[in-house]
């Protein structure tokens, strides 16, 4: 994921109450992006390097008050009614006791007795394991609390940033533009296997609300893993090959009319899917009071659906529908439709 997309996904994480864990090589600007995002949103930003911290730095030190032990908030801890980003860097370089405290923070938004104010968002970051890093293996239960984002800034983004901010000499920019590999290696895949869980599917459902379609696959991979994400995206592409919902036929047939026509004719006809829709209509309309409560528009939509079906399928479905008194009365009043079925039966 490049820089521009990372910023968009982080904002979406804040809206969806999903905690991001950014994976990427050292020196690629993870902390700077978070700090600049905080400035854009007019948030405070607290940057903690967990690899350099002890658990007391997180939960504070004990003190005595009225004969009881209390824990003092550390100096960095956000004040009430403030808003900001708590950036927890070097997550997988933290000590085990520090990780236990972070688990509580991500899960419950509190550290021991200190509750993180509602206006604060948590962003975590880790470096991939390998010969260049000394890292600890993270608990799967902790990893399941995150959306995992593999951050790989693009050379053009870096060059544009350098020009806009004036922080990079022109001769250096020219060199990197000519030899992009000299910017540093950002290769590799997400350095862990993400697996689906009921929790991660629920988080994905929240993440996709209002998110650009082109970012769905990357976000899905970061929550439910590559295999499940691809299966999910492929299922969306094949949505036109799913049964049409009976509720859609009744409520707004114009939205599904093209699919009914597609399923009804040609080499790619899917009569099996139309039968499923017909069975669902029967089930719904057979419920006590449902057929009686149909509006004129819903009855007209049902008629149009039946009229679009291949004649043999329409006849078979109508034969069952007329067992419902209210539907029987309505359909017998539709002369053109009745004549069409009668002629089909005679022709057969």
TrEMBL record:
<dbReference type="Pfam" id="PF07728">
    <property type="entry name" value="AAA_5"/>
</dbReference>
<dbReference type="GO" id="GO:0016887">
    <property type="term" value="F:ATP hydrolysis activity"/>
</dbReference>
<feature type="domain" description="ATPase dynein-related AAA">
    <location>
        <begin position="21"/>
        <end position="146"/>
    </location>
</feature>
<dbReference type="InterPro" id="IPR027417">
    <property type="entry name" value="P-loop_NTPase"/>
</dbReference>
<dbReference type="InterPro" id="IPR011704">
    <property type="entry name" value="ATPase_dyneun-rel_AAA"/>
</dbReference>
<dbReference type="GO" id="GO:0005524">
    <property type="term" value="F:ATP binding"/>
</dbReference>
<protein>
    <recommendedName>
        <fullName>ATPase dynein-related AAA domain-containing protein</fullName>
    </recommendedName>
</protein>
